[in-house]
Specification:
Length: 406
């Protein structure tokens, strides 16, 4: 056997070093969490924290095993390399069956795996244990947005007059446990708020438990993580954790029907257009909720986002567009188009008046002009919102009407 040329050996050392450096950089980088709304390494609540408490030691053990095994391979390869003047035909003496070693390397991995299994099973049991007095919310996925139903009176039904139905944003009080049940109205989706817990599939006909709790008020982003068709990538979710008093005010407001007829004449026209063109799909409580129970929308999922309190959300269309101008954590107004920062409904969240100056009219109008152009959908197949070929006048009237839905 010929010794490899010097240049090849130098290249080998360089590429090996490069791989080690890149790998280390990758690991270090994945633990930097700022500016990454979907990082699963920055827990913001007890469920996510218990996952982190399992992940860190398991990764550490795996890291130690990795370094030992790779280290041993590198060391042995180097120590027993072919040297100048050694006989290429020489065959090393063969050994077989060192009992101590064999028992050792069977028992040690078994013990490590048993330890990890105990930790994993305990974490799973803990994650699935229902907290007493938790808020009960049923989350239903459909192409390509999420609906939330709150069982407020605790009768096990999510659809009573004492309950709330809303879409796109899940509002919860910080510091309180929320028992979510995931399900789906069409295909399989997966609900995932990495800051608060792991993933949970949303399967038609199945009801899967998921515990969410946020330590502090804030906005927590998520993304559907089960491929569900055309706009799967545009199916995001957003949890808005607020103070207990804001949550109570939010609940009181959500329980209300749509306010009285708009006084503004443009908005009043908008209401008429809405009843003619939009009411076959969308519910506004107090206008068509009763009728909708008899004739559900012509959609595969049988449901479109409830618009009764549309303006209390900061985002729309599966949380991919801001409904309001976003505000940074230090109170600065950010560009309307900055979807990395979620739109902020401010006082509207709890039923306050809409400040039309902060509404993202441009995108809302574009949505009404041609929704499938902003978000790929398949309305002719009953999936998503169609282009209704509205006139600019109708769009202005509709926006004025939508702006009354606080
Ligand atoms: Cu989905």
């Amino acid at each position: 056997m010929q010794r490899l040329p010097k240049i090849v050996r130098i290249l080998a050392v360089i590429s090996f070093t490069a791989v080690v450096v890149l790998f280390t950089a990758l690991i270090v980088n994945s633990f930097q969490n700022s500016g990454k709304p979907l990082t699963s390494l920055a827990p913001e609540g007890p469920s996510a924290e218990s996952i982190q408490k399992l992940l860190v030691p398991v990764t550490a053990i795996a890291g130690i095993v990795f370094v030992l095994v790779i280290g041993a391979i590198v060391f042995i390869t180097w120590k027993f390399r072919e040297r100048k003047g050694s006989d290429p035909d020489e065959f090393p003496s063969q050994i077989h069956g060192v009992t101590t070693l064999e028992i050792g390397w069977t028992i040690l991995p078994a013990l490590i795996l048993a330890g990890i299994a105990v930790g994993t099973v305990m974490t799973i049991i803990n994650l699935n244990r229902e907290e007493p007095n938790s808020i009960k919310v049923q989350v239903a996925g459909q192409q390509w947005w999420w609906e939330y139903r709150y069982d407020l009176n605790g009768d096990g039904d999510f659809d009573g007059p004492e309950d709330i139905t809303t879409a796109t944003e899940l509002v919860i009080p910080a510091g309180k446990p929320v028992q979510v049940t995931t399900t789906s109205n069409d295909v399989i989706h997966s609900f995932w708020i990495p800051g608060l817990n792991g993933k949970k599939d949303a399967v038609p006909g199945l009801y899967n438990p998921l515990k969410l709790q946020a330590d502090e008020p804030g906005v927590f982003r998520g993304q559907c993580t089960e491929f569900c068709g055309l706009s799967h990538a545009n199916m995001r979710m957003l949890v808005r954790a607020v103070s207990s008093s804001d949550y109570d005010a939010w609940v009181r407001n959500q329980l209300k029907d749509h306010a009285a007829d708009p006084t503004d004449p443009v908005a009043a026209e908008g209401k008429k257009v809405w009843q003619a063109l939009c009411a076959q799909c969308h519910v506004i409580k107090g206008i068509n909720d009763v009728k909708m129970k008899e004739t559900p929308p012509p959609l595969v999922s049988g449901v479109a986002p409830d618009l009764t309190h549309f303006m209390t959300r900061g985002t729309f269309a599966g949380s991919i567009f801001n409904l309001y101008q976003p505000v940074s954590s230090d109170g600065q107004l950010l560009p309307m188009s900055d979807v990395a920062a979620a739109g902020d409904p401010g006082a509207v969240l709890t039923g306050g008046p809409v400040n039309t100056a902060t509404v993202n009219r441009v995108t809302l109008e574009a949505w009404l002009r041609n929704a499938p152009a902003l978000k790929p959908m398949y309305p002719q197949g009953g999936r998503g919102m169609p282009n209704l070929n509205l006139t600019e006048e109708q769009i202005d009237q509709l926006v004025a009407f939508l702006e009354t839905l606080n």
